Amino acid sequence: MSASIEMIKELLTIESALELYVGIDLSSIRIKRKSFNISCPFHDDKYPSFTIWPKGRVWKCWAGCGSGDVINLIAAFFNIPNNQAIKLLANDLGIVNERSKLTIPPQYFYKAKKQKMEREMLEAFKKRYNEAFFRLLAIEKAMKEKTLSIKSIEKAEEKSLLYHHLPYLAHLLDVLVEGNFDDQVDTVLIIESILNGG
């Protein structure tokens, strides 16, 4: 078993395990440093408290979720004992003989795939959110500039729709900035519908 453990540690880095099993994208992180921090995959982490030391192939959550090597990481993520994590990794890496191979329950992989999909969906929503926010902000600015150019009551009556739409635009922007996530999603859909002439 100790030979398997050493081979697992040799073949699988913490960074690779985070990407393959946990579904964390490290492409935007400078991982060539002596150590780096990311948000902890084990708790709601507003300030990245999960440190990785690539050369030593170890990790630690400073908020108390744990620490260790790649085996401890997989065991903690899937909430399984270390010996099961060793068998899972050895099986995936092809370093276990046929006699001791273990059938890995699919729920271990389902959890990682689900989390990766949720992260991808959140990233896609952030792009849509930013586009909706900045386009709506530009429209509001243009409408405000038009209202400033109105100099007579007749022109104000002609452009009365501007005065009616401005508070609604301001409301939508307020929800995007201060609303809860569900309200933000609904508002992005409303803005996209408006922008697409719906």
Low-pLDDT stretches are none
Spatial strand order of the main sheet: 1-2-3-4
Task: Sketch the major β-sheet.
Answer: 4 strands, antiparallel
Structural class: alpha+beta
Report on this structure.
The chain is of the alpha+beta class. Helices cover 62% and strands 7% of the residues. The protein contains eight helices and four strands. It has helices at 2-11, 14-22, 70-78, 82-93, 107-148, 153-158, 160-178, 181-195; strands at residues 36-38, 50-53, 58-61, 66-68. The protein has a four-stranded antiparallel β-sheet, with helices on one face. The longest helix has 42 residues, at 107-148.
Could you write a compact summary of the structure shown?
62% of the residues lie in helices and 7% in strands.
Topology, element by element:
Blueprint: H1 2-11, H2 14-22, E1 36-38, E2 50-53, E3 58-61, E4 66-68, H3 70-78, H4 82-93, H5 107-148, H6 153-158, H7 160-178, H8 181-195
Characteristic key phrases:
single chain; 8 helices; 198 residues; 4 strands
